[in-house]
Design goal:
By secondary structure, this protein is of the alpha/beta class. The protein contains 20 helices and 18 strands. The strands form 6 sheets. A 5-stranded mixed beta sheet has the order 2-1-3-17-6. Strands 11-8-12-7-13 form a 5-stranded mixed beta sheet, with helices on both faces.
């Protein structure tokens, strides 16, 4: 404990010197103040070995300050988060001048609320990784550097580690690697979950529905599956600066035709929520609906990665996005509070915390050690998602207009608007969509 306190004392002293050199703490850019704090572990080891035991004993106690740390997390994990925070402060009595106020906020809604008033925003908050660019641009995230950045990059799977970065900078602590989609199916109906055509045929024969959402997030399963690319480039501040867009291509045409063919089946339903689905034998959904799927299917409950599909004589594997939940730290004016926030965020994203959330609410860990836990390995939904993630790309930063335009494209296809269209007509629709995407970075 002495080594740890000494390291944090030194990190605070370095932060204070940075703030002073910049003309006072109120004038320093808060998002840069954790560079020194992030190196505390390395400072502890090197200085503790250089100093004798008396020097460590005589080191002044660090003043972390006091006050309230406000945290936003999804409603499902507010109780778990409170328990974890209590454990953190029990293990760190030197930081217990702070109380914690935990409020429910969905990770999909966090960014919109944070950037409305960054100053009033919580100190720590969970958010979906597709919101990163907006938060960085708004100055709502502390840069995670030093040993904290090393922890993020080395403790988590590659997808989650990449999701925590914008450019070369780390801005968040990964919480999950489970924000993707795969297949739930009734094994008494579906004979071959690896073939989209067979799934549809089996459902038609049984008079059961097949659900696949063709909206923006799920739609990429087809386009990425045929080899198309649609990704946006950002600068260090999160501004959109470029695009890679190959939707208006032969591969894009194949994806469009495959979606149209699927949607023309009499048992096809456009949706992705087990709770809203009726009379179904197969649905593309995520781990968040595993309990509901088990309850509905009972002994016939089964999971699998997404199937392959065939178009114009070629077979492709459905791909799509892989998504992640992250925890960000708001820039802090006080060095002591910044250290506490960084330490708490690290604790809430480490192995034990991720396993606790898995056991309590089923969140899939991003932490490599947690992923090896026997209970995690035995989870059917997480296993299917893990297999599917090898065919996906980590979801990067996308402008808000992408989601609305892609949703509209899916609705148009499934609404039968393209029925009977020639390849040339379908290509024209793809070119129109691609042009709208290109315009987002011009």
């Amino acid at each position: 404990m002495k080594k740890r306190v000494l390291a944090l004392v030194m990190s605070t002293a370095m932060i204070a010197s940075v703030l002073t050199a910049c003309g006072g703490k109120d004038e320093a850019p808060a998002q840069d103040t954790n560079n020194a704090a992030a190196d505390n572990n390395a400072s502890a080891d090197s200085n503790a070995s250089a100093d004798n035991s008396n020097a460590s004993t005589d080191a002044p106690a660090m003043d972390f300050g006091s006050g309230e740390i406000k945290i936003w997390v999804p409603d499902a994990v507010t109780g778990v988060t409170e328990t974890l925070c209590n454990s953190f402060f029990e293990a760190h009595p030197e930081m217990n001048g702070y109380t914690v106020a935990i409020e429910p906020m969905g990770e999909g809604d966090a960014a919109g609320n944070v950037i409305t008033d960054v100053e009033a925003a919580p100190d720590l908050y969970a958010f979906a990784q597709d919101q990163m660019a907006r938060l960085v641009t708004a100055g709502a995230l502390t840069t995670i550097s030093g040993d904290y950045a090393t922890f993020v990059q080395e403790s988590n799977d590659a997808g989650a580690a990449a999701a925590a970065k914008v450019g070369n900078e780390v801005y968040a602590f990964p919480l999950t690697s489970d924000n993707g989609y795969f297949l739930y199916y009734d094994k008494s109906v579906v004979t071959d979950p690896s073939s989209l055509e067979q799934i549809i045929a089996d459902c038609e024969a049984a008079g059961k529905n097949f659900y696949f959402d063709t909206g923006s997030w799920y739609q990429t399963a087809f386009f990425f599956g045929t080899g198309c690319e649609l990704s946006f480039e950002t600068d260090e501040k999160g501004n959109f600066t470029g695009i890679k867009n190959t939707y208006a291509s032969e591969n894009g045409l194949k994806a469009m035709k495959a979606i149209r063919t699927m949607s023309e089946s009499k048992i096809y339903m456009d949706g992705s929520n087990v709770g809203d689905a009726v009379n179904w034998a197969a649905i593309v959904d995520g781990t968040w609906d595993s309990s509901a799927a088990k309850e509905i299917l009972g002994d016939n409950y089964a999971c699998a990665p997404l199937p392959k599909f065939t178009v114009d004589g070629e077979t492709f594997q459905l791909g799509g996005f892989g998504g992640f939940k992250l925890m960000g730290v708001k820039p802090q004016a006080e060095a002591g509070k910044l250290v506490v926030c960084l330490e708490l965020a690290k604790y809430l994203s480490d192995t034990d915390a991720q396993l606790t959330r898995f056991k309590e609410v089923g969140w899939g860990p991003s932490n490599l050690a947690a992923q090896q836990d026997p209970a995690v390995q035995a989870d059917e939904a997480l296993s299917a998602l893990g297999q599917q993630l090898q065919y996906t790309i980590p979801q990067g930063q996308y402008p808000g207009e992408y989601w609305s335009e892609a949703d509209a494209l899916g609705e148009t296809i499934c609404g039968g608007n393209f029925k009977g269209y020639t390849d040339e007509q379908l290509m024209a629709e793809l070119e129109s969509f691609a042009s709208k995407m290109d315009a987002l970075v011009q």
